[in-house]
Amino acid sequence: MNAMATGATRLTGRISNTLARHALIAILFVVVAAFVLWEFDSFDPFLVYQLSSVAYFAVAAAGLTVLTGLNGQLSLGHGALMAVGAYTTALVLKQQADLSPALVLIAASVVTAIASIVVGAAAARLRGPYLAGVTLGLAVALPGVAVRFSNVFGGDAGLNVPALIPPDALSSITPEVWLAWIGLVPAAATFVLLANLVRTRYGRDFRAIREDEVASALYGIKVARTQVLAFVLSGACAGLAGSMMAYTSNLAAPGSFPLTLSLEVLAAIVIGGLGTLPGAVWGALVIVFAPDWIGTLNDAMHLPNAVRDQLPLALFGLVFIVAMLAFPHGIQGGLARFWRWRSVRRRAAAA
Amino acid sequence: MSYFLDLTLTGIAAGMIYAALALALVLIWRATRVVNFAQGALAMTTTYIALGVIQLTGSYWLGFVAALAAGLLLGALAERGLVRWVETGPPLNAVILTLGLLLVLEAVVPMIGGAQIRSFPAPFSISASQIGGVYFALSPFNVFTIGAVLLVMLALLVLFRFTGVGLSMRAAAFAPDVARLLGVRVGRLLSLGWGLASMAGALAGLLVAPTLLLYPNNMDAILVYGFTAAVLGGLDSPIGALVGGLLIGLALSYIGGYLGGDLEAIGALGILIALLMIRPQGLFVHGAERRV
Amino acid sequence: MWQVLEVEGLRVAYGGVTALDGVSLSVPERGITAVLGPNGAGKSTLLRTIAGLVHPGAGRVIYNGTTLTGMRPEEIVRVGVSLVPEGGGSIRELTVEENLKLAHLWRRDAADRRRAMDEVMQLFPPLAVRRHLPAHSLSGGERQMLAIGRALMSRGSLLLLDEPSLGLAPKLVTLIMRTVRDLTSRGLSVLLVEQNARSALSIADEAVLLSSGRTVAARRAGELAKDEELWHAYLGY
Fold this sequence. Notes:
The structure holds three protein chains of three kinds.
Chain A: H1 2-39, H2 45-70, H3 78-95, H4 101-123, H5 128-148, H6 150-153, E1 159-160, H7 175-197, H8 201-211, H9 213-219, H10 223-249, E2 251-252, H11 259-272, H12 277-301, H13 305-325, H14 330-350
Antiparallel strand pairs in A: 1-2
Chain B: H1 2-32, H2 39-57, H3 60-81, H4 91-113, E1 129-131, E2 134-136, H5 140-162, H6 164-174, H7 176-181, H8 186-212, H9 220-233, H10 238-259, H11 264-278
Antiparallel strand pairs in B: 1-2
Helix pairs in contact in B: 1-5, 1-8, 1-9, 1-10, 2-3, 2-4, 2-8, 3-8, 5-6, 5-8, 6-8, 9-10, 9-11, 10-11
Chain C: E1 3-14, E2 17-28, E3 32-36, H1 43-50, E4 58-63, E5 66-67, H2 73-79, E6 81-84, H3 96-103, H4 110-123, H5 125-129, H6 140-153, E7 158-162, H7 170-185, E8 189-193, H8 197-203, E9 206-211, E10 214-220, H9 221-226, H10 228-235
Parallel strand pairs in C: 3-8, 3-9, 6-7, 7-8
Antiparallel strand pairs in C: 1-2, 1-4, 4-5, 9-10
């Protein structure tokens, strides 16, 4: 009895410390970013747009990395879940165009989370390639629904999402900066929440099930329920990301959510490091800025247009292949190894 | 009534194409316990190769043969060069690897051939045939489709059941370690298995291109249908691939015909999910706790 | 007498454990060498190393003048050395006939193949009865018959047998051992690993006693059978 009490105090003590620490980091980050954006309004608007893209990709990647990296459920359908968030945003704004973005983002998250309950329940009993196949089907099939019911979803052309206008109180900042703000705050909040969640019992349960499902069940973990929870969590992130994406591109259309989108999010977490939250950020940065880097490469090498357009995808595919063959741990894993190596060297030098 | 008949006939023809892709997935699953998510992309690639040959030589049949040969080669190379290294590890790695191959193929092919939608010729008329003044929903090309797939399946059946090579391949697939002790060159035969499977996939690509048209991700949906058909029949069962393909072809034809063409994909998804909930091991695989 | 198999100083270690520590032995042409010893002595590892499944840290294996060490298992089989692992090494999903067919795919002549198949069927009537049944439906003894039948049909001239009598009733053990002895009259040589020391020694020419990866004794089978001290020390009774 005593031991349990001590343990509980220690655990909650740890959690609130971690929560406080993470929240502090996030708030600091957001404040710095806001300052930078506010002051430097001569910022290239395209760069700001890219930062918004990094923000929503990172959110989607964070959700997927918890689901696939921690919990071991491979989902190829997160693009479709992002579509749910995007279309929810467009439809809500159609009803009431001046609704606060915060409410819209939350609504999109919640709706997608509910949809994820259904998908997650179906997925909870599936493993490996079967799960991949079903989620693949989801990614391929969802655009068709939007086209079929085009009176609701706007068919191939999709639905418009009105441009974000900064509120009157902040009318001095440009719309692009406001948009980046709308991207950074939810992203920071998401990461704080996820970072804390993975340290709780839920995070441990996710990992435990991935390591050894049978043992977890014997240990008392309710496997199916936990699997669905992981799915709902990552689905909520995807929905949030989709909503942010709708604001960023002012559009919710089937063409924005091809299979390759789902694969890009997967690429982000493979590149960044499966199962690590910082890895989700690395991966998002790579995914968004890769076409730029390839653009510079193109200028240097004068590649034909056809090659240049397809090169990002080809490279992501190559990353998948090379990662599976040689480097299962991505950037974050590489960094972790580097730190370990350095600390070992330091200790050896000090000795 | 005649609408239903039309849908049934076209459903059978489409089903044979799904069956061919399903067979490719089944053969690879049996050989190496991997679901080859790049199988559709491989079929798309071989169809582009066929188009190139057709444009170069003016002969459809040369292009046809070229596609099948390319399928054989690419499949064997994929196994030997890439998949072999992930065959024994966690299944997630193999899935990601084949997805990587899918991305590479869907990006590299338009680099060479352009991303625009192209038409692809058919060796026989694709419009409905006429028998004695009555329109018959099955076109000559549909008949060719059904015949070609059946022929290929028969040939593979004969190969596996009645030849030494086929026996060795089955041995290599069932028990590679034991087979090695019997002198079976397991590695080579697994590559051959992948090559034959990709040949079947190449056939599917050729048969679907005239109506579906040719563009870099035209096989994405077909992969999903083929996978559904393979799961329906049982991932271990080639016969299952045929039956599964036909059933999916019919189901999708009815869904498309009565509920709207854009719902085919979601219909396939619904069937797949229902299948995996009710009978995950498929129709033709007996017993044994098949954990999906 | 020509030694069809020479094993020199074989050393195998994995996971920090030394399974074989400089083992040497030989198998005479058309003869049987028995490898005996308590559990964990390294007997199975020895066979698996010769068959190419395990790579030795040191030592050589020479078969009819060809160095086997470093070759892949399927190549070693093609050279003429067949390992029959514990349990018979058949493929459960294939039929009896298919398992046998696998062994003689190398024969060019169809008539030759039929002759070899008939020969095995005559030798082991239970196999003929279950010809078209899958191998997993066979009993333990029938599986050993299948294993030896397969060995007969392969192009091998050296057989590595890993505990063929394991789990078999005494009458079957006698039959199996007798059949193994008969194999030598067909030109085969045998390296026989056995727990059942007595039956092994009853048909063997040479005998090697292993313990903890080392050779404790290597002499003619008859001599070893009479050495009571060794029996008590290593073979338990």
